[in-house]
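Human: My hope is that you can spare some time for a protein that puzzles me. I am handing you a single protein, as its sequence and its fold in token form. Could you go through the record with me and say what the backbone is doing? Take your time, and here it is.
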Amino acid sequence: MSRRRSIPWIYRWSRPIIGAIAVAGAILTAYLTITKLMGGEVACGVEAAKTGATGCKSVLDSPYATVFGLPLSLFGFLAYTGMGTLSLGPLFVKAENNKRLRKQLEDWTWLLLLAGGTAMAVFSGYLMYILATELQTLCYYCIGSAIFSLSLMGLTIFGREWEEVGQTFFIPIVVAMITLVGTLGVYANVNGPTADGRVPIPVPNTQPQAPNGWNVTTTSGDAEIALAQHLTAIGAKNYGAFWCPHCFEQKQLLGKEAFKEIDYIECDPNGKNPNPQACVAAGIQSYPTWEIKGQVLRGTQLPRKLAEVSGYEGPTDFKYTMPGR
């Protein structure tokens, strides 16, 4: 009497584990996407920026966090959702009634899971390289997603007994090459000029120091200076905090010469020339906030938006833009 072959536990549980990781990744990226689209602050943003504990906010606001004008986390959400569907879908097909169908689904989905897991791991590896060399800071969300992606690839390779061992080498190699070439293409001009000739603003990759925060590195053009003078002349005010990345973006968009002309109010008591009482009296809830002709604009505003709201009629050949905007 022959003994029945024991199935390794990893083969039995690989699909549920992949599904669980994919669900966790989808929740993480959904949170980042919704927060980004709503203009909110991620959980590590405000307090960490004050204490210098982490640079996740500056990373998530960097040019590398936007692809085709959309948050990178949105594409991550779609990828995790796809992996979760592929891993858990065949489990809902009853084997006793549709053995052939389930076998076909398992075979095809494993190939797709292998390709998807490899692509996600390679892309995450590239982002970890950028995090370490270009941004030079720490982002727990990014590291967590990279661990998820690497785990998915490992489970798709070792989570089943492959009938053709060559598949576990050929598919990952081809997918990895395609992913790497595509990734390099997507980010080829991340710090270069935009289609209209304007340049994306530099993004901080260090922690802000009181009382001044980051040093403004952009140089204003005549249009930015004229706009700033117009805003001050009509009584426009800009509220912010020295540690706020979006406030720094606003300064970079206008340039150091133009921003000196702005009626800027520092809301943090540790900042330079602070006036937190004015911020409280104005009901400021987020930074930066503009008050222009009775209108309240929250978040970083492009110069053309400030010009439109304020009735500015001077030159509009503004030098800088933001990635995806």
